[in-house]
Amino acid sequence: MIASPLLTADVLIAYSAYFVGSASPGPSNLAIMSLAMSAGRKSALTFALGVVSGSFFWALLASLGLSAVLATYSECLVAIKIAGGLYLLWLGFKSARSAFGADKPLAQNGGQREPLGRLYVRGLLLHLTNPKAILVWLSIVSLSMSPAGGASHMTQVVLGCMGIGVCVFTSYAVLFSTGSARRIYLAIRRWLDGSLAIMFGIAGIKLLTSKT
User: Fold this and answer.
1) pLDDT tens track for 54-70
2) Positive or negative CA dihedral for 40, 202, 89, 166?
3) Are 87 and 27 in contact (CB under 8 A)?
4) Contacts by 144-149 with C-beta closer than 8 Å and gap 24+?
5) Which residue, 166, 162, 169, 170, is CA-closest to 141?
6) pTM score, two decimals?
């Protein structure tokens, strides 16, 4: 019996697609970036862990046949889309309030202003209410389906993509919590928070008004 190669063409395509989807600037990455600069590395890594947990949840459901469930109960995706849009608008409101609020001292990398448990839940909710995350995982699972590979092939792809996700999200937390990044944040805090408010607001409205 000849073992199938680990990195086949469809596996590489799936990994590449997931890397592009997870590394490109989106609500999760922007939130991690902002939190890393304002609250420090520990807070950002905790938030990123929540994002990764949400991603793993959708990966598990996609592997178990989420597409068939959504085809039967399409209102589930509509409910998730509404919840995601409202959550993005709430994040936009928080960013706008921060942009117009008084300057506050940055938390040190060893501490945080917000409890870590709450930060984890925030990251988890952000990814659980993101329809894009669901659709990305459905496409990844579709790409990983190989008649020759079977279930083990899909498991390899899902675990590999999860490893990529952990690296991407934690890298945002580490890179943007450096001293130089946080000094830049101090100088452009209002502009950055204002830009985040606009981006979260546009993303939320687009999600709420989209027909798909």
Assistant:
1) 988 888 877 777 656 55
2) negative
3) no
4) 144/10, 144/11, 144/14, 146/8, 146/10, 148/4, 149/4, 149/8
5) 162
6) 0.71
Nearest to 177 by CA among 106, 127, 114, 121: 106
Q: Tell me whether residue 151 is exposed, middle or buried, using C-beta atoms within 10 angstroms of its C-beta: 0 to 12, 13 to 18, 19 or more.
A: exposed
Q: Which of 103, 110, 111, 158 is nearest to 136 (CA)?
A: 158
Kindly calculate the radius of gyration of the chain based on its CA atoms and give it in whole angstroms.
Answer: 19
Place of tokens 């890179």: 175
Name the residue ranges covered by the structural domains of the chain: 27-102+112-209
First to last CA, the chain: 45
pLDDT tens digit string along 148-196? 555 566 777 888 888 998 999 999 999 988 888 877 777 776 787 787 7
Compute φ and ψ for 147, nearest 5 degrees: -55, -35
- Does the pLDDT value for residue 116 go beyond 80? yes
